[in-house]
Design a protein that fits this description.
204 residues; alpha/beta; Rossmann fold; 7 strands; globular
């Protein structure tokens, strides 16, 4: 029987999506020790390593951007729009290239948190795509429509179309409606197991 292979695509905005997905990966590996995991993300490996106790293959790539920021609070909406438009215009080439990677590595399932393009990539390789999250980036960008004379509308529609191709969404608590997803399964909160005890942490 061939080794099962899971490909996990993680959005590259901040560390929240990464830590959540890494904690999920760690639990999956405990239940499925024979599983090979490929993590598609540009998140730093030290962060992944602090949550994932088992082996995994690091595949540095990005399929979305979230919001481009110069610091923790300052958003560059214009740069975000331009980068999103670029990704949308290059989606076929991106999906074709990454689908070939999936086939070469004999991936069996794509799990995403929560790059919209992941569904198109999975289906280009004739694979199912499951996603996990409590909001989509279309929800965030919708509040920006008026500032850019509707320029974000096309981007939002594209994201919703991508999400519409997702085979199953595991919807977390405190969620927006996420109506673009055709198949939704509500689940509980995810969490990680601390690697350090309280005594090991420095005083602040």
């Amino acid at each position: 029987m061939p080794q099962p292979i899971l490909y996990v695509a993680i959005t590259n905005h901040g560390f929240g999506h990464t830590t959540r997905s890494a904690a999920v990966i760690d639990v999956i590996q405990q239940h499925c020790p024979d599983l090979k995991v490929i993590v598609a993300s540009t998140a730093p490996q030290w962060l992944l390593d602090s949550y994932i106790s088992g082996d995994y293959e690091y595949h540095p790539c990005a399929f979305d951007i979230g919001v481009i920021q110069s610091d923790s609070v300052t958003m560059d909406k214009q740069a975000t729009l331009e980068k999103l438009q670029y990704i949308r215009n290059q989606q076929e080439a991106i999906a074709t290239t990454e689908a070939e990677f999936l086939r070469q590595n004999q991936v069996g399932l794509v799990l995403a948190d929560i790059p919209p393009l992941a569904a198109k990539i999975a289906h280009a390789a004739d694979l199912p795509c499951w996603m996990v999250g409590n909001f989509g980036w279309d929800f965030i960008y919708r509040d920006w429509e008026d500032e850019f004379d509707g320029a974000f509308i096309e981007v939002i529609q594209w994201i919703e179309a991508c999400f519409g191709e997702c085979d199953r969404l595991f919807r977390l608590p405190f969620h927006e409606e996420m109506t673009a997803f055709p198949q939704i399964e509500d689940i509980g909160l995810t969490g990680g197991i601390p690697h350090y005890s309280e005594a090991e942490l420095p005083d602040f």
